[in-house]
User: What shape does this take?
Amino acid sequence: MKNLKKELHFFFKLSVLSFLFIFSLTLKLGAQETAQPSSENTETAQEKTEDKTNDKTKKKEASEFEEKRDTILYGTGDDILELIKRLKSDEDDRFDADLQKIFAETKIPAIRDALFAYFAEKKNDCLKADALMVLENKEDFPQETVRSAISYIRELAIYEGIDSLRTILKDEESEYRDLCISAIGKIGKPDDAVFLTELFDSEASDDEKKSLIIKQNIMFALEELHPAEIWDFLIRVAEDSDENTIIRGTAVSALGKIGDERAIPILSEIFEDKDPILRTAAIKGIAGFKDAKAKNIIIQAFKDSYYKVRLQAIQSAKEEKAEDAVPFILYRAKKDPENTVRIAAIEALSHFNNAEANEWLVDSFNEEKTGLSLRLKIAESLLKNNFDLIYEDVKAAALKAISEKQKNKFSAELGKTISTVENTGTAPIAEAYLNHKDPIFKSIGLDMFKRNRYPELIPLVSEIAEDEKNGALSRRAKDLLHADPTESKAGEASGNTSTPQDKQTGK
Assistant: This one.
């Protein structure tokens, strides 16, 4: 009996100890679970944080949108003019409908003028009816508004305004004459060109200087139009040795643009004139002809003593894709005494993709002794016209220069050059500039982002936007992030390294 009691007592103690151990272990596990949430709970917490951040960003976007909208609704004239500049700079067209409404309501001429210029640059014809109305009732508007309306009609080639332009030109004292002549040159038809020749022949102002300017402007417009209907008129002016040289030269160029091969002997003879203006015009006019004599004249122009003749030879050869002219262009790029000619030759060579020229261009870019202006021109031209040929060299030079203080000028100027290139392959360079401590380089990085909107750099631009210490850069970064991506001058895809030619040919 005693033994039984002892055994029961032992088992009782053991049970109590077991219970206490299990209870203690349960408490510890519970504490650990409380201190260390499950991965599921952790992910939920992260998602909540991200949601809060997104909500905050959306609220800021809404706030900035409302701020601009309030400026449009309630701002002063100066406020609205400043906003128009900002929207133009940021390529933000979310408020175009509001701005169009402002045009209809405002009594401030400066705002009307700014909006004519704003929509003209965007090639938006929403103010077409307004521009035509201003021309028809020009006496009711300030002169600057009438000028803005004419410029708008010219830029958008609104032919419905041609009668009003002609009417204004018939007023010999019109302060809008030169602008109307230019507009007709842009939007006119053959009978409008004939109208301008009649205006040219009837010009008889007592002020010789004023008369000369009017006739020169008429001839510039006729060169732009160059219909066959004015062939005889152009020959008469081109061969008139008593006529002003600039007017004669413009007639010579227009004569060649008509494309009639009867012009070749005339242009050939004029190229032998001692006046370099006429020789330059002859090269410009003869460029489009495939005749062997015409080609030979252009080749001879590369050796002309006057630099503008050589410049025109380079331009004509580039426009006509004259492969046989490449050796002459390359020589000009290497040896010409005029820097402007060398720069023009470099730009032209980038279009030909000639092996010898390409090798020289890349080697010259990598050689610091080449000179800043020429190195920058090589980078700009090849990045736009033969991206793959120069990109790695440009990237290496940019990343090296940006890390060396003594090369700040080169890295800044090279960065500005890269920011003009529409190709998302430049993302690594943009990232380096955005990460730089110097606000100048950050700003250049934002220029690159504005051009291409690299998807992989959006988080980095967001950091700049959120950091108020960045001041104006923060605001600019926010505006870039909020701009409509479809309006950005971006490449088609991240990492795209296709050239403009590839896009055109569908490669």
Q: What stands out?
A: Residues 19-23, 486-507 have pLDDT under 50 and may be disordered. The CA atoms of residues 41 and 341 lie 69 Å apart. The longest helix spans residues 39-74.
